[in-house]
Amino acid sequence: MKTFLQLVAHDLYNKIGNDLSRIAIVFPNKRASLFFNEHLAGESEHPLWSPAYVSISDLFQQLSQQKLGDPIRLVCELYTAFRAETGSEESLDDFYFWGELLISDFDDADKNLVEADRLFSNLQELKSIMEGFDFLDEEQEAAIRQFFQNFSIERRTELKEKFISLWDKLGDIYHRYRENLAARGIAYEGMLYRNVIEQLDTDTLKYDKYVFVGFNVLNKVETAFFTQLRDAGKAMFYWDYDVFYTHRKEFRHEAGEFINRNLLLFPNELPGSYFDSLRHPKQVRFISSPTENAQARYLPQWVREHLTDNEKENAIVLCNEALLLPVLHSIPSEVQNVNITMGFPLAQTPVYSFVNAVLELQTNGYRSDTGRYTYQAVQAVLKHPYTRQISTQAEVLERELTLTNRFYPLPSELKKDDFLTLLFTPHNGNRQLCAYLIDLLKEVSVLYRQKEEHDDIFNQLYRESLFKSYTMVNRLLSLIESGELEIRIDTLKRLLNKILTVANIPFHGEPAIGMQVMGVLETRNLDFKNLILLSLNEGQLPKGSGDSSFIPYNLRKAFGMTTIEHKNAVYAYYFYRLIQRAESITLMYNTSSDGLNRGEWSRFMLQFLLEWEHDISREYLEAGQSPQSTTEIRIEKTPTILDRLRRSYDITLNPEAVLSPSALNAYLDCRLRFYFRYVARLKTPDEVSADIDSALFGTIFHKAAELAYTELTAYNEEIRKEDLERLLRNDVQLQSYVDTAFKKEFFHVPPHEKPEYNGLQLINSKVITSYLRQLLRNDLQYAPFRMIGMEKHVEEKISISTPEGDLHLKIGGTIDRLDSKNDTLRIVDYKTGGSPKTPANVEQLFTPAEGRPNYIFQTFLYAAIMSSQQSLKVAPALLYIHRAASESYSPVVEMGEPRQPKLPVDNFAILETEFRNRLHTLLEEIYNPEEPFTQTENTKACEYCDFKALCRK
Prior knowledge:
Layout lengths: L3 H13 L6 E5 L3 H12 L9 E4 H8 L3 E2 L2 H16 L5 H20 L4 H4 L3 H6 L9 H13 L7 H27 L1 E2 L1 H11 L9 E5 L6 H12 L3 E4 L4 H4 L10 H9 L17 E7 L2 H15 L7 E5 L5 H7 L7 E3 L3 E2 L4 H13 L3 E2 L4 E2 L1 H8 L2 H6 L3 H10 L7 H4 L3 H6 L6 H21 L6 H25 L7 H14 L1 E2 L9 E5 L10 E5 L18 H6 L5 H16 L4 E7 L12 H9 L5 E4 L13 E2 L3 H11 L11 H9 L1 H9 L14 H19 L5 E2 L1 H8 L2 H17 L11 H24 L2 E18 L2 E17 L2 E8 L10 H4 L8 H14 L5 E8 L13 E2 L7 E2 L4 H18 L6 E2 L13 H4 L2
Parallel strand pairs: 1-2, 1-5, 3-4, 5-6, 7-16, 7-17, 8-14, 8-15, 9-14, 15-16, 22-23
Antiparallel strand pairs: 10-13, 11-12, 18-26, 19-20, 20-21, 21-22, 24-25
Helix pairs in contact: 1-2, 3-10, 4-5, 4-9, 5-10, 14-15, 16-17, 17-19, 22-23, 29-30, 31-33, 31-34, 32-34, 33-34, 36-37
């Protein structure tokens, strides 16, 4: 296989000879020149004078007296012209992003030599004097007529009025903008191109011959440039194509649309016999993939099947450049050298996430009214690898904030060392923020200076990404300090994020060596023997038509500007030209529908399938899946485990140990959960969350109720009706109890600070206040009574028999509330969720099953303890606050068989003996070596289990 560049090199050498010093070879991009130079050197056995290599963009810049302007400065200059011509008070923040769109339109207009005065003329005039536009051909005139059919000037709307008023000013804005830029010696690319062609003198050109190689679509400026050089005898043209798509008799092929025009205007130096490859048989495979990343995982197999000794004959082309990282990790060791042409996205480097995290910290993450940061913003910065590597205190601080649930930490709490002091010093204003970012990036650069000796490829990329980010922020700072860029902080964030997102870091290496990994645009002029294209989906190739424009489609078409049809034709050419000389072609596409991907193969694949007369293999990737078999988990009570269990709760060894109702309920619900939590001592990591789950909701309510009753009983244990009525009338006081509870249990801020509720937290606060009011109303019906205790810890020693001898334990926990009336001591357990249950008997409390009344088990355990410690009758009660609004509601626990009369448990003594006997049996079972820790049969209990991932049930 002879590549296009080999053919050009051979022909050019034969025509020019050894001395090419007066020749400039112009390519659409720079990459082709590296390969071409190698082919040219191979044409001669002796040294030769090399030609100059230049891309078309660089050539125009060399011929221009103006310099390309910085993109941000160009928008600022346009804003100045816009305000001068319209008198608008619109801020740069509102203007900036549609200002970029306007520059893109001006750029396209200039590259296509559009007469701006005619394009931006008054729409009414444009309609009435259409006949005078003799420069329009029939198709363009039809496009304008179509525009006015769809856009009626007579039927005005507010939006249409705004469009017309701005449209009428665009011509003046265009001219003033170009004048301002010219005065400063800068230009956008289209302006620079137009100025060059308008002032071009072919006699003053530096080189004798300009050789144009591998171009396709030409804008009007390039066409005029080529024409002038052709007429001056200073141009040679080499076009790459295939008769498969340029000489279709049955229809006009979009891939050959522009090439056919170019061949007529600028004849090819190479004979047509070189361009008939695609009609010959090749190995072509279409492979569908179930996911995007699965394509990358197929690469090792493709490499083993196709890799040749000359590695540069093989190419991996990414239609979706986001696949670069998975592809790099999938290239097998058989590949000796790899050349990556597309650049590594800066958005996938640590510096990108670091800059975003610290910007979020100083903007949305900082409350200037309270002088506090939000935990989420602080956590993102503390967990970042850069922070962890520079500050030894970062991990300790993050753990401390989590343990104490510091939802709104103060800057002073975070400044644990020099780097954290720099990081957590508040900054506002664009200049301060940019200077802050620059200082941080300087600090981070130390990491890469230290590791220079043993760099890998990613460290080199990360160092360069850091430097590139530093220069970008520095550029923004200079524009801000000069007064050219006056924008709000949120616009600065968006702008910086946009700049960093589109930036790429080049890979270093020898381009003409090794297997090539490239994007579609980098393949121009290059040919490969073995080729694989990944993500050949609709929307990736051709790219989706997401380009915005202020100029309506029909007017763009009428004035010869770029339209979506142009772009589709260009991508069609890229596709067909790339595969025309290849011997083995593998085209892969993703069939999954997620996000913007519709799982649809590219139209070019379907088109090629229909057009090509040879066989195409249709295959699909399938992930090898074996269903996971879950094996039963069974933890035998080995001597080691029994010893740990004994040491945990035997009060002769651990006097402070208490076996709580929660632990016993855990055992009854799932023995394995009990083992994980109370024997192995596993627990979920602590975290700070803005959300309030049901457990935290209950904790805050308990604290608010405790505060209310602590104040009510400050001077007297008796709760009277008049005290409750007075408190119920005091909404401010009730809310203050809830606020204080939030500050203590959730926000962890001092009592004198005002809590900073978000929307959901505020709703929760109001609900808890309503629950507190409902509790007081319920107690109003029960009053008068004596408050014995709130959040009171109770415990009782108990001895059991085990095979190892007697074991002494303590059972106990915290009772929400103890109150007494007449001869009854009531044990009240508050519940802010769930539904009351009615057990048939005591046995049901100890029988593992779905819906086991675990709350009642807990209350009965407390009742048993209190029965042995005082002489009053004990009545266990469960107060479901959210269900207590009805007048007939009673918190008294009831028992009884289904569809039988229920008996209230107003004297626990009746049930105490049976309850204690079953409790002893339960405790002895826990310490019985013959009873292993096993998984529950009740899968409903697994839904919210902390150990679900371990158990896999």
